[in-house]
Amino acid sequence: MVLKSKLLTAEEYGQLPDDGRWTELVRGNVVEMIRPYLSHGYYLCNIGSFLNQFVKQHQLGRWMSADPGIITRRNPDTVRRPDLAFYGASRIPRDPPREKYWPASPELVFEIRCPGDRNKDVIQKVADYLNADVLTVVVIDPEKKRVEVYSADQAPLILNVGGVLSIPDVLPGFEVPVQRLFE
Predict the structure, then answer these.
(1) Where residue 52 falls among pLDDT bands split at 50, 70, 90?
(2) pLDDT (tens digit per residue) in 59-69
(3) Residue 169 φ/ψ, nearest 5 degrees
(4) Residue 102: which of 114, 92, 116, 117 has the closest Cα?
(5) Which domain holds residue 63?
(6) Does 30 reside within a domain?
(7) CA–CA dist 120, 3 (Å, integer)
(8) Are 29 and 4 a contacting pair, CB within 8 Å?
(9) What is the overall mean pLDDT for the chain?
(10) How many domains are contained in the chain?
């Protein structure tokens, strides 16, 4: 549902007061999103714990959670809010801007599907991330117990419970059995 009729820039969107709604900016329009359930936070922490441990151990960059805003398009602007975003060392600004969006896109983004998410909306988000120079997008689907891995130069990879999630282009050596993401 679109909440504002005037097209906003990313900067204007970032200055809006917090009215408690869960929103993104999509082509200049503030759009209300589905509010996640408790299980969403569980899966977010679960995958985040595997990733955080690996990234810290190998000193690869920084993880962001709590839906960091990422500008994926300009004129009209789109600001997406992924569940997790990984910035490799080369994409981290020396002095991270305060209260502003980082100038670079993350290398890796994770989205966790909510029960009410429409497939076309999830696919549009994936496309927005990839078009904004995100190298890999991983969509976790708790209902189907599967993981979808997207990148710009390959067909989507679908992993079920017996598979192993790895992201060699972004996190070489990282592997986790898909089953463990849903335990």
Answers:
(1) confident
(2) 888 887 766 78
(3) -70, -25
(4) 92
(5) 36-181
(6) no
(7) 20
(8) yes
(9) 86
(10) 1
